[in-house]
Prior knowledge:
Elements: H1 3-55, H2 62-78, H3 82-90
Amino acid sequence: MTMPNQYEKLVEQQARLKQKIERENFKLRQSKYYESRKARSRRLIQKGALLEKYFQADTLSIEQTEELLKTFADYVNAHKPNKIKTISLINRPIVLIF
């Protein structure tokens, strides 16, 4: 096997490996995105079930549910226990304004 021939094979092999790495990285990114969407969907379903349970909102339309929540939002947010306020702050991005 001549040197240029061997070099060409190595270049081809390198290109194939790069493509394989890119495919695997894409699959990994897709998987992480899918898992985060799945977790968010589950969380939303659980919170919706709690809303229906405690506010007996299972017969309300989306608009009626929103109106109900708007009615009590200011009061609830102002009277949250400190342990819940702390958790809420941890999950939010911090915005600094100068």
